[in-house]
Amino acid sequence: MSISSAPPPELLDFEDPVTGDSSIDLPRAQAAVAELLRALGRDDNDPHLRDTPRRVAAAYAQMLTPRETSWTTFPNDDGYQGLVLVKDIPFNSLCQHHLLPFRGVAHVGYLPGERLFGLSKLARGVELFARDLQVQERLTQQLANWLEDTLSPRGVGVVMEAEHMCMSLRGVQTAGTLTRTSVFTGLLSDAGPLREQFPH
């Protein structure tokens, strides 16, 4: 499909690929943004702001809707026992307290049992949970739980590092500060050479 044939943002279907729900009401979101602009003392009839409600509603809808994907696994026929680790997976999410972005990288790995994931699925899994109103701690735990539930591996490790705009742009205004969260389960719960492969 060429770029020119893509539908405009207000016509895109922002259906949740996990639940199948289409809970994003774009016209209502646009009206809310227009009201917010007025409440902030801005003239939403200003030529520069006239299209802002539509743009903001479409932007949030996109940031809150992961791409549809399937979670097929395949058998670990060769009995691979080593660590599968994908580092530096970029992600963007939205702070549920301020609706401001936080962004960073995720390092996601597991010790296989009987099933394996394609490597791209680890990056897609990060996107799945990041495209929501989140806190980093919950996001990290959700990724670990998802791997445990989907693969029944011998161990899981998830480390996330992110800068939060709600700290950088407001409040203490500490630009460049990174927050690191981690979850380790199973054979990765204890310190050792396998766990040392994760950033620390």
The radius of gyration computed from the alpha-carbon positions, rounded to a whole number of angstroms, is 20 Å
Mass-distribution shape: elongated
Q: Could you give the count of β-strands?
A: 7
Largest sheet: 5 strands, mixed
Report the average pLDDT across residues. Answer: 88
Secondary-structure arrangement, i.e. CATH architecture of the largest domain: 2-Layer Sandwich
Q: Give the proportion of residues in helices.
A: 25-40%
Domain module tally: 2
Number of helices: 5
Bin the strand percentage: 15-25%
Order of helices and strands: HHEEEEHEHEHE
Uncertain parts: 1-13, 16-21
Q: Class by helix and strand content?
A: alpha+beta
- Kindly identify the CATH topology of the largest domain: GTP Cyclohydrolase I, domain 2
CATH secondary-structure class of the largest domain: Alpha Beta
What is the straight-line distance between the termini?
42 Å
* Sheet with the most strands: spatial strand order: 5-2-3-6-7
> What do we call the CATH homologous superfamily of the largest domain?
GTP cyclohydrolase I, C-terminal domain/NADPH-dependent 7-cyano-7-deazaguanine reductase, N-terminal domain
Describe what you observe in this structure.
- The protein is of the alpha+beta class.
- It folds into two domains: 3-63, GTP Cyclohydrolase I, Chain A, domain 1 (Orthogonal Bundle); 73-197, GTP cyclohydrolase I, C-terminal domain/NADPH-dependent 7-cyano-7-deazaguanine reductase, N-terminal domain (GTP Cyclohydrolase I, domain 2, 2-Layer Sandwich).
- It is 29% helix and 24% strand.
- The protein is built from five helices and seven strands, in the order ααββββαβαβαβ.
- It has a five-stranded mixed sheet. The chain has a two-stranded antiparallel ribbon with strand order 1-4.
- Strand 2 (84-95) and strand 3 form a beta hairpin.
- The chain is elongated, with a radius of gyration of 20 Å.
